[in-house]
Write a structure and sequence with these properties.
By secondary structure, the protein is an alpha+beta fold. Helix content is 59%, strand content 19%.
């Protein structure tokens, strides 16, 4: 659901805000996001002390398919 949340909001996001949106702890969100980065689904961009998260092209495609599946259910 993190991918879908990132897809639905086009601006770059912060890990803490994303964790609240999908109702999980910050540490769990960071762990999942690191796995997504390893899979080339998200990119991190560090701006000073702030690290923002954005979807890659492949991440957009996967999030779109997840949303379609969710709508079918």
């Amino acid at each position: 659901m993190m991918l879908v949340a990132l897809r639905n909001n086009n601006k770059n996001r912060y890990g803490s805000v994303l964790a609240k949106e999908v109702d999980c702890t910050y540490s769990h969100a960071v762990k999942i996001l690191q796995e997504m980065q390893d899979s080339k689904l998200v990119d991190f961009e560090k701006q000073g002390r702030i690290k923002t998260i954005s979807l890659t092209d492949n991440g957009h495609k996967v999030a779109e398919h997840i949303e379609k599946i969710r709508d079918l259910l």
